[in-house]
Design goal:
This protein has one domain (12-296). It is 51% helix and 7% strand. It is built from 10 helices and 6 strands; from the N terminus they run E-H-H-H-E-E-E-E-E-H-H-H-H-H-H-H. It has helices at 30-40, 45-55, 79-105, 150-159, 164-182, 185-194, 198-227, 234-244, 247-255, 268-281, and strands spanning 12-14, 115-118, 122-125, 128-131, 137-139, 144-147.
Amino acid sequence: MKLNGRRESTNVDDRRRMSGGTKAGLGIGGIILAALIAWISGGDPFSAVMQTVQENGGLGSVIGGQTEVAQDQQREFTEEEQQLAHFSKQILAGTEDVWTKIFREQGLGEYEYPRMVLYTDAVQTACGNGSAQMGPFYCSGDQALYIDLSFFSTMKQSLGADGDFAYAYVIAHEVGHHVEYLTGQLGRAHQQMARMNEADANKVSVRLELLADFYAGVWAHYDNKMFGSLEDGDIEKAIKCAEVIGDDYLQKKARGYVVTESFTHGTSAQRMKWFKLGLQTGDMSRGDTFDRSDSEL
């Protein structure tokens, strides 16, 4: 991505030297990390993912966590960590500029900026205690997205999902959940899920995640239009990232087969489809994941 001269967002809370608590909602990276940790250690990735989903309510944007694990680290940051922090602040600033423009043009009122909290290992949130093992996640309770920057290294080393636009996609996806919150889509979906059995609630979760993927694509469309930010290969890297975090991809890798009723984020094909639709059209009205049948997703 071309980011030279781009501003950093000031809506960032850097808690990387602060103590924190435990895990909260299952973010976009949570399902990846749960599988990877088990896989690398010789365990069963599928079982690890299922346990993680059950412990955290199966949602990419909410909420949970009870056990407390406090840490206090005092250390200097590496050059790579500082570069990733700078990059993340620039991407957040880009989402602020884009969504402010879209909200005004669409008559949605003034866009309320989310905060981005950078932390190491564990963090306290309005949704409970958060853990780096959950990957990046959004908490509607304090309208903040939480990121342990080591997740990007995990993406690169363990999944082969590399490149700054792939990392930007992860941040933009979590901001997509914030857009869902502001438009009321997140709250309505959570109310529905509270009345459903697990299988049906998982289907609603998939629609939320695909919508956040779509919104990430919409952001990329306008960010490139406003700043000329995309370079050759960027789109392919983001699509590769969407592919390797599909539920079916991870389950096939773990067991050789899939259990569709356990999907909470969508298949690789679905995630790529909705991200690309947002990227190609930039049209918020096309993000109709809740109006589609299962077969149309």
